[in-house]
Specification:
Length: 304
């Protein structure tokens, strides 16, 4: 589901202090578990790894969204000259760098995504906990928040903070998922390993205090925070090339790639830390899922 809403003028006054949290040895003191590397800053609040394999998957995910949105970096009508943009949970930074290049096109497009070190001069990265009190000394013309379900414990609070830190007349856009898997023709059976994995992932995520399917709830949270001109769009995300529609077939190909490449990222911490599975059990289950995901007779999908 995608939502974008505009903040109207209000009399809210928020005391803000200027800050920038720079990378430190503590931030880079990573934790290694079951062959994957996890973050150290406020350890455990984000359950996906941050190693090279996950960086590659995040770049694939960025391409998936680019294809699904038909080349657009955002849907909100932010105008041609926004001055301050915040990308929450920026991952490898590829969306921010693409956005920076679009607004200040000084680098050729073929730089992305291989050369991650080539950061546009109008892009700055900061490390902080988005669920803590925001202390930005400035407000933003546009706030972008994509696929943050594995990191957020309190969505209404996050959305309220976005409202407080976007300029009157500015826009906020949330893009997140409902990972309740389904199929348009009942080809995804109850015995499916992929469906079982989805349901177990949802169960484990909620036990860990996260909402794995924020998509259907975003509209209500956004309106409750005070945003107006709220737009809600729901999009099909197929897994695999089964759709007849050319665009959805392309989306499905990229989605199958990011899903199968990312199974360890999605499952390992949730299944071992929360659900009590062993490393070996998760590995066997992932192998079953990868085999099943190649079956062209199974028409699986979820929603953005």
């Amino acid at each position: 589901m995608q939502f974008y809403g505009i903040r109207t003028q209000s009399n809210i006054e928020v005391c803000r202090a200027s800050y920038t949290t720079s990378l430190s040895s503590g931030v880079e003191d990573y934790k290694f578990e079951n062959g994957r590397r996890y973050h150290a800053y406020r350890e455990g609040t984000y359950v996906y790894p941050n190693d090279e394999d996950e960086k590659d998957r995040l770049d694939i995910m960025h391409k998936l969204f680019e294809v699904r949105l038909e080349g657009k970096l955002h849907m909100a009508p932010i105008g041609e000259n926004p001055q301050q943009i915040l990308d929450i949970g920026t991952g490898t930074g590829i969306w921010a760098m693409d956005m920076g290049n679009d607004l200040s096109p000084i680098q050729p497009r073929w730089y992305k995504p291989t050369f991650r070190h080539l950061v546009p001069p109008n892009v700055q990265f900061e490390v902080d906990d988005v669920e803590s009190d925001w202390q930005h000394s400035r407000d933003f013309d546009f706030i972008h928040c994509r696929c943050m379900a594995p990191a957020i414990r309190n969505w209404p609070r996050l959305i309220r903070q976005c409202y407080e830190h976007v300029k009157p007349g500015g826009w906020v856009e949330y893009q997140d998922l409902d990972v309740t898997w389904t199929s348009p023709d009942d080809s995804l059976k109850e015995t499916s390993s992929m469906l079982r994995a989805s349901l177990k992932f949802i169960e484990g995520s909620r036990k860990a205090g996260m909402e794995p399917c924020p998509g259907p709830k975003l509209e209500g949270w956004v309106k409750d925070a005070g945003f107006t001109e709220v737009v809600h769009e729901k999009m099909i995300m197929p897994i695999g090339t089964w759709p007849a529609d050319k665009l959805l077939k392309h989306v499905g190909a990229w989605n199958h790639l990011q899903y199968t490449e990312g199974l360890g990222a999605f499952m390992m911490a949730i299944f071992t830390r929360v659900l009590g599975w062993t490393y070996e059990e998760v590995q066997v289950f992932m192998a079953m899922i990868k085999t099943e995901s190649k079956d062209p007779k199974i028409h699986s999908m979820y929603h953005l």
